[in-house]
Amino acid sequence: MRPGGGGGLADDAGCPILHVDMDAFFASVELIDRPELHGLPVIIGAAGARGVVLSATYEARRFGVHSAMPMTRARRLCPQAVVIPPSHGKYGEISKGVMEIFHTITPEVEPLSVDEAFLDVSGARRRLGPPAGIAAMIREQVAERFGITCSVGVASTKFVAKLASRECKPDGLLVVAADRVAEFLHPLPVAALWGVGERTEQALTRLGIRTVGDLAQVPVTTLRREFGVAGAHLHALSWGRDERRVVPHTPDKSIGNEETFAQDVDDPVVIERELLRLSERVAARLRAAGLVGRTISVKLRRSDFSTITRARTLREATDVAKEIHATACELYRAAGLQRIRLRLVGVRMENLGPAGTATRQLGLGDRETGWREAEQAMDKAIQRFGPDAVRPASLVRPPFGPMDL
Amino acid sequence: MMFRVDRDVLAEAVAWTARSLPARPSVPVLAGMRLEVTEDHQLKLSGFDYEVSAEVTLDLQTGEPGVVLVSGKLLAEITRALPAQPVDLVVEGAKAVVTCGSARFTLLTMPVEDYPSLPAMPPAAGRVGSDVFAAAVAQVATAAGKDDTLPMLTGVRMEIEGDTVTLAATDRYRLAVRELKWQPDQPDFQAIAMIPGRTLADTAKSLITGAEVEIALSSVGGTGEGMIGFSSSGRRTTTRLLDPEFPKYRSLLPTEFSAYADISTSAFVEAVKRVALVAERNTPVRLAFRGTEVVLEAGSGDEAQAVEVLPVEFQGDDINIAFNHQFLLEGLGAIDSDLARLNFTTSTKPAILTGGKPVDETAIADYRYLIMPIRLSS
C-alpha cells in the first residue's frame, strides 16, 4: 500500500502544495482529435532522421519509448506505434486553458513548463476546502473541459509533491501526509531526488547508498565532506525538507531560440542565415512581450556535442532582429568556428527590460523610420496573414526544392 | 660616438620623441630611440613604428659623430630624473654610458643596423599658427570615434582649399567641423587627407613650442601610401594617412533652424554635470526649452531623478530634446566661448552647438559641433 495513499482519505492538513502534471500531455492533446487511437501506442515526434520523441502514450511507453529519445530508436522499440508529427499552436492553447483553471483556484501558481505547475493552496482552504479536495476538483475540471487527464501530488513541500505526482501517474492523486514523508521517500532510489544526476548517483552508489533511506542514515558531515554544499542539500531532501516556496509567475529572464540542423553544417553562409531566422524569432517574441534586451548570446554546438556560448552587451537595448543578427554573426565569427561542423545554433537575448523605458541614440544620417518600424510592420502582416506572410528574402524558400522538380 | 647637452634640452627632446614609440612593439628594435651625432655637430633623436615617425634635431657644442640605438622608454625615464647639469652620453662598445653630475647610467645598446630608416618628409605645402592649429585640432578630435574596429570614424578629415583648411570628425553621434586660415605655398593648393585622430591631436598639442607649424603632404589621392608631415622648430613628425573615405558631412549639417537658445556656457556645463549624476552611461539628459528658461532632467521614475532650471535667451518654437550628457559636455567644452548657442529643428533632428553670438545671424560659425539627439520612447 502506498503510504498516505488513498487520495482524499489521507491527512492533508499540512499539505498545501500541489504539483499538477498532465499525463503524456502532447500525446493526449493529439488524441483529442483522433479518438480512434485511444488505447494504441502513439508517438508524437518529427519523423526526420534527427527527430526526437516529444511525447508518447502509456501504451507506447510500455515498450520502453520515452520522451527525448531519438525517433529512430523509438520506432525500433515499438514498430507498430502510430507516429504523429507535432502540431504547433494546439498545445499552447490547451496549456493556457489548464493554467486558467489553476488561476481560478489560487494566484499562487508557478508554471514549470507547458504541462506542469506547482500550486500553493494555503489561501484557498476556507473557500474551496482541504487540498486533497482541491486536487480532485482540478482533475475533474481538466478532464471535463479538455478530455485529458492529469496527476496531482499533494504534499507539504514542492519536491515531495513532485515525487508524489510521479508516483501516482497516470490519472492519479496522491497525498503524502506531512508526518509520513520519510515513510514515502525512503524506499525510493536516490536518483529520484532533485539534484541527483548520473554523476552524483554513481558517487552515492560507490558509498553503498542506493535508496533515499540509505542516504538519510548518512551523517550530514560525511555528505558535506563528499559533496560540499550539495551534500547538506541532499541530506535535507532525504528527510523531505525543501525550503523553496511557490513563486507565482517568474518574469522572463531571457528569450532565446535554437535550432538543431537536420545534418551538421559547416558552411558559414548557412549558419549565418540560420542565425538570421533565429534572430527574427527572438526579436518578434521580444516585441510581442513588450520587452527590449541589451545582452545577446549565441550558442554553438559542435557535432561532438561540445558547446560554447558567446555573449556581448550592446550600447543600447533593442528588439530589432537586424541588430540582433548583426551581433550574433559577429559573435559567431569571433568564436573561430567557421568551417567547423555545427549541430546546433542558438540566439538568446538577456538583460531584458520593458520597451517603454528604452531610448535610442540617433546616428548621423539615420533615417527617421528604421528597421524597428519595418519589423513592427512585419509583425502586423504576420498577425493578419500568417507566419509566412513576410520574411527576409534570404529566408524565403522556393516552393519546390530541387528534389521535387 | 659621444655628445654633451644641457639636461633640460635633452629631457624635452627625448620625451617628445618617446611619445610616439609603440608600447607593444611588433619587433624589439622599434622600442628603441635612435640617437645620431652628425658631422656638422647636430644631435638627431628619432623614433618610428611604421605608422608614425618623430625626429628632433638639436645643436651641439661638443660631440663625436656616430649612431646608437637604446631603449627609448628607459632613456626618457632617466633624462626626466637627471639633475640640472650638463649630460654626457658616451658609447663604449655595446654599452651607452650616461653621466650627469654624480649620476651614472649604463644602458645596453640595440642593433642599429636592424632599425628601419625613417620615411622622408613629404614636400611642404604651407604653414599655420601653432596655437590656432592645436586649438582647432582639439576642438575637432573630441568628436572622432574611439572604436578601432571602425577605423573610418577614428580619423580627422582635413580638407584644404586655397587658404582655408576644414577639419572634420565624427563618431556617428556627433560631428565637429572647424574652418581656419593658413598660408599655402601655392595659393590654389587643394588636398584631402584622413589623419588618425589620436595621433593628430597629440602632435598638434606637442608642436606649440614653435610659432608656426609647417604641413607637408604626399601622394594624396594617388596610388601610393599617403603621408602627412608636421614640423616646427627642429621637430618633425610624419603619420601614415587613413583611407580617405568619410561620410558626406556637409549635406548632414543643417543650416536652417526653427529655434535657438543662448546659454551661459559655464552655468550650462555645471547644471548638466549635476543632473547627470543620476544618469547612467549612455543615458540622456532631457532638455525642455520654454520661453526664457530651460528645464534639465535626468534619471527615470524607477531610479533617482534630478531636475534643474536655467535661464536662457530663447527664440523660436518650444522644444523638448534629449542628448547623451557626455556628448553635450564635450561639445560645451570644445566651443571655447562664454556663451553657448544651441540651434534646433526638431527633437529627432541634429542640433548644432556653436560658441558666442554670431555677428551676423546668417554667418556660418568657424566651429560647429553637431549632436544627434536621443529619441525617447513615446
TrEMBL record, chain B:
This is Beta sliding clamp. The lineage of its organism: Bacteria, Bacillati, Actinomycetota, Actinomycetes, Streptosporangiales. It comes from Acrocarpospora corrugata. Keywords: Cytoplasm, DNA replication, DNA-binding, DNA-directed DNA polymerase, Nucleotidyltransferase, Transferase. InterPro entries: DNA_clamp_sf, DNA_polIII_beta, DNA_polIII_beta_C, DNA_polIII_beta_cen, DNA_polIII_beta_N. It is found in: Cytoplasm. GO terms for molecular function: 3'-5' exonuclease activity; DNA binding; DNA-directed DNA polymerase activity; identical protein binding. Belongs to the beta sliding clamp family. Pfam families: DNA_pol3_beta, DNA_pol3_beta_2, DNA_pol3_beta_3. The gene is dnaN_2. Residues 250-374 form the DNA polymerase III beta sliding clamp C-terminal domain. Residues 1-119 form the DNA polymerase III beta sliding clamp N-terminal domain.
